[in-house]
Amino acid sequence: MFLIREQQRRPVRRGAEPLHDDDLRRIWILAALRFGRPALAGLAELYRICGCSLDNREEQGRHPGMNAAVYKALSEQGPRWLTELPAAELSDLPVTGDDLIKSLQAKPGPWLGRLLQALLQRVALGELPCDREVLLQAAESEYEKILGDR
Predict the structure, then answer these.
(1) What is the pTM of this model?
(2) DSSP state of 103
(3) Among 6, 80, 83, 141, which residue's CB has the most CB atoms within a 10 Å radius?
(4) How far is CA 107 from CA 83, 98, 134, in A?
């Protein structure tokens, strides 16, 4: 359901193009961060085994926005996207909560988990390298965004 909801969040226009690989990759990675690599690896295998039997209209009606081409792409490319992830868990990052508290000279609080998740997401999506110094610098701007959201 997460994958379907994420896909459906895109603005739908009459005659709109289907999702591109970059869109599918982003949705897949976000799902991997939320549910874990093993869950997504299992889902890709399930899509492969089932043979993407969405050619019949009844199945398409149950999963609007998903079609055989999407399932095929996820079953074939999803496992590769998972192995290419530079970080999929907070423990994969070269910075810790303690590092951020010291670097930002801030007190621990709920912001810390949000900040770590934001950094993890940016690394996983390839927006930032998985590098300690880069992440500490990026943490400053992310921290300001989080404080601004209060």
Answers:
(1) 0.79
(2) H
(3) 6
(4) 35, 10, 22
DSSP 29-45: HHHHHHH-HHHHHHHHH
Q: CA 66: distance to chain centroid?
A: 18
Query: For residue 119, which of 133, 105, 102, 106 has the smallest C-alpha distance?
Result: 133
The alpha helices in 1-131, defined as continuous H runs, are: 2-8, 21-35, 37-50, 57-62, 68-84, 97-104, 110-124
pLDDT digits (tens, 9 = 90+) for 39-81: 999 999 988 887 655 555 445 455 555 677 788 888 899 999 9
Query: Rounded to whole angstroms, what are the CA distances from 21 to 12, 26, 45, 112?
Result: 17, 8, 18, 32
